[in-house]
Amino acid sequence: MSDSKVTFENVAEVLQNDTRVKLAGVDADGMLRGKLVSKKKFLSVIDDGFGFCSVIFGWDMHDRTYFRELQISNKENGYRDILAKPDLSSFRRIPWENNVPFFLVSFYDPDTREPLLACPRGLLNEALRKPAAKGYRAMAGAEFEFYQFATPDRNASSTATFLKENPVETLPPLTEGMFGYSLTRPIHNQEYYYGVFDACEQFNCGIEGWHTESGPGVYEAALQFGEASEMADKAGLFKYVVKSIGTKHGITPTFMAKPREGLPGNSGHMHISLVNSDGTNAFFRSTPDPSPPYPDVAHLSDVGRYFLAGILAGLPDIMPMFAPTVNSYKRLVENFWAPVTVSWGLEHRAASIRLITPPAASPKATRLEIRVPGADANPHFVLAAIVALGWRGVEKKLEIPVPPLSKGEDMGGANDKGVRLAKNLGAATATFMHKDSVAREVFGDAFVEHFGGTREHEVRLWEEAVTDWEVRRYIETV
């Protein structure tokens, strides 16, 4: 963890015993892209930034350029540099790399010096700006479920190496069977289990709760609640910690939404609330409403109701930001505790939005839990979408569009009260990019065209792929 608050005035002093610095920014898929630089180089760029190849916004997660050239990085502009500026407030040290200093960067257009249209950190900061202008701060908490696999040869370079020569189903889970909240399963890999927890604390992305989930080799982590802008950073860095510590132990964690057929998927639930300038919870209604539109919102303030309505109204139009991969939609199916409709309910874990208010929670803990995102989603885009949609609801004073799910009511089936969310990435992207989509209203055409284009690329690769399932099913029978 950083032991000093870094500013322009003291950065040289904080780094006086260092010779190198690691820098990283976030790409459209939520992946960290960065480099190691000399301290001299770092100190020379903290004022004006430095050039960073724009191709990180011109290719996919496997460095394949998008089939359709997009605005930021393309042949016409020569895959030119964009501007990267270190964020000194993001300072921490990497404990598993000899405490090398680490800073996040944000990306800017080199001509206008404005935040780059697809920079995840910039998009979130822009979404947070509007409620901040009215005296509100957004607070958030992230939860991640993820599977972990043991590389059969613990000395192998990676699971990817193993999978080049072996079927994916032969990759063994870290532990067998279903045993959620087990106190004994983590002992099987105790050094890794405690190593992740301790490294997260030291790397300033601390874990609040850490336990096994129901599924072979599945853990769940709830990160320590905090400012929404910092939470997105910490969520992305948490994945970095887990993957880094896992590598040292021959373990491959996966944040895929659905890595195993027939088993629950990996969620990336996000909790959100607004606080007033005095720190009080803006979603809490101090005097219960005697005649609320629904009993479920008796303890929810008007601002909270508008915010909830805004997310529900825009949810179908921003689905690629919550479920960004082809695999995402394998999780969002009926009967697996994953929401598939525009729905909400008080303390209802089957709904897309779980409302948490008194009497089940304290006034300061009043919040919304957005349960649609998977663990594979980019946390900056998830929070940007939540805040942008919620604030749209506040500005427009939107009414909650659907009644709550009642206790015992499922979210699946033909008689749902809410609209069925997209069943695949292609449909979700088409809705996202529609000329009248809410996404265009809150994020602008430039972002929608860029991010939508990246998702069209994913869909095209999937449509061209020949899968193991197809070969097994049809090789002899057709």
TrEMBL record:
Pfam families: Gln-synt_C (PF00120). One of its GO terms (molecular function) is ATP binding. PROSITE patterns: GS_BETA_GRASP, GS_CATALYTIC. GO terms for biological process: biogenic amine metabolic process; glutamine biosynthetic process. Coiled coil: none annotated. Residues 16-112 form the GS beta-grasp domain. The keyword ATP-binding applies. Residues 120-478 form the GS catalytic domain. Keywords: ATP-binding, Ligase, Nucleotide-binding. It comes from the Eukaryota. Belongs to the glutamine synthetase family. PANTHER family: GAMMA-GLUTAMYLPUTRESCINE SYNTHETASE, TYPE-1 GLUTAMINE SYNTHETASE 2. This is Glutamine synthetase.
